[in-house]
Amino acid sequence: MEKIILLIYILFLPGFSLSHSFFKGKEIDLAERIGLSIVLSLSLISFMTFYLYLVGVKVKKDTIIIEAGLIIIIGLLFYFVRLFINRKNSK
Length: 91
Fold this sequence. Notes:
The structure is a single chain. With 91 residues, the chain is mainly α. The chain has one domain. The protein is built from four helices and no strands. It has helices spanning 2-11, 13-22, 30-55, 61-90.
C-alpha cells in the first residue's frame, strides 16, 4: 500500500498541481490533465534528481519525496496566486 501511495505522490501529484497552475479548470479535459500530470511529474523529478546529483546531493528515497513535495507546493502557490489575481481583476 505504501508503494502505491508513493507512486501516486511522485508520478502524479507534482504534475497535477502544476497543470492546475498552467491551465484553468475547463481549458483541458481530464484525460489531457492526467497525461500532462504524469509527463510533467516524470520530467521534473528526473531533472531535479539529476541536477541535485551533480551538485553532490545523495539520491535516496527521502530526497525524491522532498523534491516531489516542493514541486507540489510550488504548483499550489502558483495556482492560488493565479486565483487571487483573477478574482482581483474581476472586481
